Amino acid sequence: MSQVTIDKNEVDIVIAAFNSDLTSFLESWRPVFSRFHLIIVQDPELKDELKIPKGFDFDAYIKSDIEKVIPPSNTSMFSGYVCRYFGYLVSKKKYIISIDDDCTPAKDSNGDLVDIVTQHIINLKTPATPFFFNTLYDPYRKGSDFVRGYPFSLRTGVPCVLSCGLWLNLADLDAPTQSLKPELRNDRYVDAVLTVPKGSLMPMSGVNIAFDREAVGPAIVPALKLAKEGKVRWETMEDVWCGLVVKVVCDHLKLGVKTGVPYVWRNERGSAIDSLKKEWQGVKLMEELVPFFQTLKLSEDAVTVEACVVEMAAAIKKGSHPELANAAGNMVEWVKIWKEVGSRVTV
Amino acid sequence: MSQVTIDKNEVDIVIAAFNSDLTSFLESWRPVFSRFHLIIVQDPELKDELKIPKGFDFDAYIKSDIEKVIPPSNTSMFSGYVCRYFGYLVSKKKYIISIDDDCTPAKDSNGDLVDIVTQHIINLKTPATPFFFNTLYDPYRKGSDFVRGYPFSLRTGVPCVLSCGLWLNLADLDAPTQSLKPELRNDRYVDAVLTVPKGSLMPMSGVNIAFDREAVGPAIVPALKLAKEGKVRWETMEDVWCGLVVKVVCDHLKLGVKTGVPYVWRNERGSAIDSLKKEWQGVKLMEELVPFFQTLKLSEDAVTVEACVVEMAAAIKKGSHPELANAAGNMVEWVKIWKEVGSRVTV
User: Which segments in chain A show pLDDT lower than 50?
Assistant: First the structure.
């Protein structure tokens, strides 16, 4: 319904570099990314120097940059996938687009290259509708609207602060599912975006997301790191945990989360079977986490994102799991760091 | 994931006839409907004799048939769109497919005719997942699965009892929206079906639905009839009301509701502007109904669909609206009639 303009000064694209040579990755994205500023954060465990092709406007951060900002006790947290959160922290922009470096642009059902930046920003700049489900999906998309019976008082919606994109080819499955169905590929391009309803939690994937940094930055929190976490998505849980946290915060503060388009194309990774011995810890944790987060009620005093995260951390700490106590500590620490970094003039 | 077989003895297709000549409607559906039994219910206000083309297995019901079953005080309720509920009542099958007679088959993104019966039955025979949102939509669809982070204990799902299909061309908008945007047509074929999460209500449209009659029949209830209701969808609210009722029942009894494919093609109707003087009553009612149904908690004693509907009717009756008191009365009456008709050997 609405016309969205995209101001390049409002957008940072954050890329976590797990491979030092980003040439083919960035070349594939050049038509989409070249007019935006990139924040490239090198996995602190990666020793080689980054190779970044010419023609991009970027800032790159390495281990020593992280160590200047993050207290020494916390720097180990920022290895692997989590290093991208450092990019969220040092950005000064309103919107963050974040994408894994094993993804290339997808094509839509017309065969056109998917511009993930435009679509994510449209998702974020148009309202979300978490209080009633619209059967024609996002009513603000061109060609759509609210269907008969949708209360008019709810048609203004609420601010959308998180846009979760999807993946073609290699879907973001867990190691057991991927091991059981090694041939399974996602080839269904579903041309839709929708608000995840209030009260419903979803398994957020960090592969392809965007968010309003000013509105929910402190809730996009690096907190849960599994002991045997590795360098493939099916071994990680940091994003899933973050998704539970941010959705509870959004439901409490009347903010919206969307899921659907834009898609990216996820390229092949190694065998999931090797990961099976690692990832069960995360799989088992979810059985406890989901009921916990589903029943968590934040107090009326929690009126800011920071207050919500801190209150949630306190509730988690009361539990018995040692991993979760660590995660709760990381959440409190993150809110603190976020405030400190935000108050500096330069990083 | 699962293979679904469709037994024609389990399915009734219910058609409410608002036009006496069903020839072109049924001919358009012949490839899909011809192997199933049809229940055709003539709008009691329609005087002409039905014209039904050869080669269909059907039972037709007219005003005098309705009067044999429904108490005289209630027969006026069954005029217009509501007459189809009489078909639901007299069916002996497990599954009902119900479709408006101004719809013809849609084409999918490959240009193939959409077989609504097969898709609705697949939706109903595969589980629903109302307790956690799956970002790759229905995990039971071929080519899809649960994404990383989805709790394994929730992957068995719950029985799906209601499948809400969608519409191409003329979308199911209300009269104000249709009047404001007379040129708006829905041409986006979204190849997805998803579970409406627990706690989220949706504006059910009766244009194209299917349900498990044995499981939720008594909750598919004709209850709310607006004073100036007419013969076009944007003047009616009976289906929207029914959707609120059935979703609250499903959430309470741990049953599932899906929305998405299959699509039908909705043909043009007259001007929505004429309806504006009629439909505001329904639009205004929704402002009160949604908060009411959203906060309604059924008791633990309500363990059957019938008990849920009766308990809900009692809660509605306590309100102040005269239309709603009538609707509550109709709900209680429906549960009674459903039980009576179900206990007869033949109708």
Answer: 1, 347
pLDDT one-digit tens code per residue, A100-126: 999 999 999 889 999 999 999 999 999
ipTM score above 0.90:
yes
Query: What residues of A are in contact with residue B110 (Cβ under 8 Å)?
Result: none
pLDDT of residue B235: 85
B-chain CB neighbours of A152 within 8 Å are 283, 286-287
Phi, psi of B115 (to 5 degrees): -90, 95
User: Which of A141, A146, A233 has the CB atom closest to B148's CB atom?
Assistant: A233
- Rounding to the nearest 10 degrees, give the CA dihedral for residues B92, B94, B100, B106: -140
In sequence order, which residues have a C-beta less than 8 Å from that of residue A193 and are 6 or more positions away? A119, A123, A137, A138, A141, A163, A258, A259, A260, A261
C-beta atoms of B188 and A191 within 8 A:
yes
pLDDT confidence of residue B77: 87
Q: How far is B153 from chain A (nearest CA, A)?
A: 7
**Domain residue ranges in chain B:** 95-342
Name which of A109, A150, A203 is nearest B148 (Cβ-Cβ).
A203
CA distance B16 to chain A (A): 20
Q: Is B264 exposed, middle or buried (0-12, 13-18, 19+ CB in 10 A)?
A: buried
At B224, list the tokens.
């709310």
Provide the residue type at A329 as one letter. G
* Cα–Cα distance, B264 to B209 (Å, whole number): 10
Model-level pTM greater than 0.90? yes
CA A307 from centroid of its chain's CA atoms: 20
Name the minimum distance, in Å, from the CA of B109 to any CA of chain A.
9
Task: Single out the residue of A145, A64, A333 nearest to residue A223, CA to CA.
Answer: A333
DSSP secondary-structure letter at A131?
A: T
What three-state secondary structure class fits B301? Answer: coil
Alpha carbon distance B296, A167 (integer Å)? 38
Residue B277 has pLDDT above 50, yes or no: yes
- d(CA B76, CA B227) in angstroms, rounded, equals 12
Give A238-291 pLDDT, tens digit per residue.
Answer: 999 999 999 999 999 999 999 999 999 999 877 888 888 776 778 888 999 999
Residue B3 has pLDDT above 80, yes or no: no
Structural contact between residues A250 and A257, judged by C-beta atoms closer than 8 angstroms: yes
Instruction: Give B313 to chain A, closest Cα distance, Å.
Output: 20
B286: tokens are 């929704």
Give the pair of three-digit tokens for residue A86.
Answer: 């450092």
Beta-carbon contacts of residue B301 (< 8 Å; ≥ 6 apart): B307, B311
Q: Which of B148, B155, B179, B202 is most worth mutating to test chain A (most A CB atoms within 10 A of its CB)?
A: B148
